[in-house]
Specification:
Largest sheet: none
Mean pLDDT: 93
Radius of gyration: 18 Å
Structural class: mainly alpha
Number of strands: 0
Length: 126
Amino acid sequence: MIPGSNKDHPSFLRSFGYAIEGFCTAVKTERNIKVMITMGILAIIAGVVLQIDLLSWCLVALCVGLVLFAELVNTAIEAVVDLATQELHPLAKRAKDIAAASVYTLSITAAIVGIIVFARALGLLG
């Protein structure tokens, strides 16, 4: 498709299919997305077991979704950098490292939120 053109623009349903295809490709090819999904499932199981409240569910859902989002964006950035250059270039390394750092930062933040939510559910926080 040509940017800014409606010519050959995929339908909404087809676009949704492409998104699912991208998600499935990431799950099949990327170890870290599998780890993030596993951690998200464990957080959901913990939420069910501890019967967390609605606001806590919102926080858990946001954290899981944002971490998955960040990992998918990181994967896309790495693919684009690899497409742009096959050589070890300092700027390519910089782009990949910064993209990975964004996932790391968000993951730490999500872990802190998770600790607070589940500590509260266990009665360890007021």
